[in-house]
Amino acid sequence: MGSRSGIEIDDTCVTAFNKLKLAKNIRYTSFKMSNDLKKIIVEKEVHKAGDNEDQYKEFVAQLPQNEARYFIYDFEFRNPDGDIRNKVALILWCPDACLTKTNALHNQQRRFEEETRWNPS
């Protein structure tokens, strides 16, 4: 997909987002800038496995300390009535140690939302 900023969002990003929303067996998908900083690409998918809280702890532990990422994460929780619910969240991870250019490029979150047709409902 083209863009006004010159950064493309690879079509596989939209496919991965839809897969996570519809399949219900993927915990999260991570996205990153390509090596040439010209497009956002899918980095990996992590399937639901084991305890939800343990999987979240593993997710937090693997966050890169000097690289930005986008994540689409399927949070599973119990509501006050005890029913299991899911909410899909878009997370922008951009630690202070990121290169300035990479940081600026990743801060185009609104475009990423628009291109993936982000609608958490």
Entry summary:
With 121 residues, the chain is α+β, with helices and mostly antiparallel strands. It is built from four helices and five strands.
What distinguishing features does this structure have?
4 helices, 121 residues, 5-stranded mixed β-sheet, single chain, alpha+beta
Strand content: 25-35%
| Overall pLDDT confidence | 83
Biggest beta-sheet profile: 5 strands, mixed
Q: In angstroms, what separates the terminal alpha carbons?
A: 24 Å
What's the number of helices?
A: 4
Order of helices and strands: EHEEHEEHH
Structural class per helix/strand content? alpha+beta
What does this molecule look like?
The chain has 121 residues and is of the alpha+beta class. Helix content is 31%, strand content 32%. It has 4 helices and 5 strands, in the order βαββαββαα. A 5-stranded mixed β-sheet has the order 1-3-2-4-5. A hairpin with a 5-residue loop joins strand 2 and strand 3. The longest helix is centred in the N-terminal third of the chain and has 13 residues. It is globular. It starts with 7 loop residues before the first strand and ends in a 6-residue tail after the last helix. The mean pLDDT is 83.
